[in-house]
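Appendix B, Record 12. Input sequence as logged:
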Amino acid sequence: MKYPMEEQQAPVISVKSWMLTIFLLAIPIVNIVLLFVWAFSKSENPTKSNYAKASLIWAAIGIVLYILFFVAFFGAIASNT
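Logged structural output:
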């Protein structure tokens, strides 16, 4: 018997599936493509989708920090010459 307010839970992702996921994310270029596919696919497991979204957010934060460091570092060098 299902209750009206019962939450549906996503199926558990197996260890084998996580092993394959981690292996695929170690391959350059493939990892970026797969993260976008997993993050924005409606048919993907919500757990993997959330992991992909979090990874993309961390990547974006890293890129922004790298750009800020790059601008500050080379701005300091340019101002001294």
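The chain has three helices and no strands.
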